């Protein structure tokens, strides 16, 4: 008799376990698997779209496309994070309901837990809010050359490799990757927003006629603008601003040009070489350490 009761009890237990596995565990597992696959699909779609945006940034108006590509890339990061978080929340609520956890009863404890986390995670909330405004206000985006001013006047400079709601990642000229919480940024100096400016200073001997020099510099700037290698990087021709410094036997003239974002350093280097070579060919006395026969002295 006891054996029959044990067998009957075991059978009922197995029956209940089978029902629980079939009615509760299996659907919950399917929700978790489906949510994971959906999150992966969203990430894949947004990554493909991001690749297309980046590829198209080299066509049409280079300036406009570059700015749009940077902004869309940052927005896609926000959309990706938001959608995946929303999917995770829906799946978690659904699974808890299937497991018999009273979700409505968790509202009160959840509010208390949220308040406690709010006090303890103010820094994270601050980072998220700051990141939201960085993206929506287009302060900087992927590929921008920026200098971030942090507390205690600490500055971090580099190219933006990633912008999310919480952090900004910079790649310095030394190859270091710096992760900066958005809430710690006091000021952001964007050196490649919309357009950049190439600046070149050239020293001339004091006996050189300033009017002749300015006229020649304007002609050289037009030639530089029409060059097939340098022209696509420029928004306008390099022009002289005039004398910015005078010495005992020299004076310095500054030449400036608007360039595409992030191209100011490349243009400055090539423009300096172009100017000095053209001026020397024209017989104008240039006081510069650059020698066309020694490329290592370009800077």
* Beta-strand content bin: 15-25%
Query: Which strand order does the major sheet show?
Result: 4-3-2-1-5
The helix count comes to: 6
Number of domains: 3
Overall spatial form: elongated
Major pleated sheet:
5 strands, antiparallel
Task: Tell me the name of the CATH class of the largest domain.
Answer: Alpha Beta
Mean pLDDT: 78
> What fold name goes in the CATH topology slot of the largest domain?
Alpha-Beta Plaits
CATH architecture call of the largest domain: 2-Layer Sandwich
- Count of DSSP strands: 8
Give the topology string: H per helix, E per strand. HHHHEEEEEEHEEH
How many whole angstroms does the radius of gyration measure?
31 Å
Helix content range: 40-55%
Write a structural description:
The chain is of the alpha+beta class. The protein has 3 domains: 2-101; 139-190, SH3 type barrels, CATH 2.30.30; 196-297, 2-Layer Sandwich (Alpha-Beta Plaits), CATH 3.30.70. Helices cover 52% and strands 19% of the residues. It is built from 6 helices and 8 strands; from the N terminus they run H-H-H-H-E-E-E-E-E-E-H-E-E-H. It has helices spanning 2-56, 62-98, 107-120, 122-136, 210-226, 264-281, and strands spanning 145-150, 154-163, 167-171, 177-181, 187-190, 196-205, 239-246, 250-259. Strands 4-3-2-1-5 form a 5-stranded antiparallel β-sheet. Helix 1 (2-56) runs antiparallel to helix 2 and helix 5 packs across helix 6 (264-281). The longest helix is centred in the N-terminal third of the chain and has 55 residues, at 2-56. The radius of gyration is 31 Å and the shape is elongated. It starts with a helix and ends in an 18-residue tail after the last helix.
């Amino acid at each position: 008799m006891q054996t029959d009761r044990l067998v009957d009890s075991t059978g009922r237990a197995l029956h209940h376990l089978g029902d629980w596995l079939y009615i509760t565990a299996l659907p919950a597992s399917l929700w978790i698997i489906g949510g994971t696959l959906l999150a992966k699909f969203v990430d894949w779609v947004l990554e493909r779209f991001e690749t297309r945006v980046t590829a198209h940034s080299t066509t049409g108006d280079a300036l406009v496309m570059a700015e749009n590509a940077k902004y869309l890339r940052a927005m896609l990061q926000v959309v990706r994070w938001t959608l995946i978080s929303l999917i995770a929340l829906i799946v978690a609520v659904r699974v808890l309901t299937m497991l018999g956890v009273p979700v409505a009863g968790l509202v009160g404890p959840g509010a208390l837990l949220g308040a406690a986390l709010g006090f303890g995670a103010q820094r994270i909330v601050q980072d998220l809010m700051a990141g939201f405004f960085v993206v929506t206000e287009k302060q900087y985006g992927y590929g921008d050359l920026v200098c971030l001013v942090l507390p205690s006047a600490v500055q971090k400079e580099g190219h933006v490799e990633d912008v999310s709601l919480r952090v900004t990642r910079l790649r310095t000229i030394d190859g270091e990757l710096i992760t900066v919480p958005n809430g710690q940024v006091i000021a952001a100096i964007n050196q490649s927003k919309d357009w950049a400016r190439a600046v070149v200073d050239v020293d001339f001997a004091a006996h050189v006629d300033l009017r002749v020099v300015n006229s020649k510099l304007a002609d050289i700037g037009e030639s530089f603008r029409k060059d097939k290698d340098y022209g696509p990087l420029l928004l306008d021709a390099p022009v002289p601003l005039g004398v910015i410094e005078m010495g005992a036997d020299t004076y310095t003239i500054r030449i400036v040009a608007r360039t595409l974002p992030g191209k100011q350093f490349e243009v400055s280097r090539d423009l300096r070489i172009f100017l000095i070579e053209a001026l020397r060919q024209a017989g104008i006395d240039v006081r510069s350490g650059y020698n066309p026969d020694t490329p290592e002295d370009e800077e």
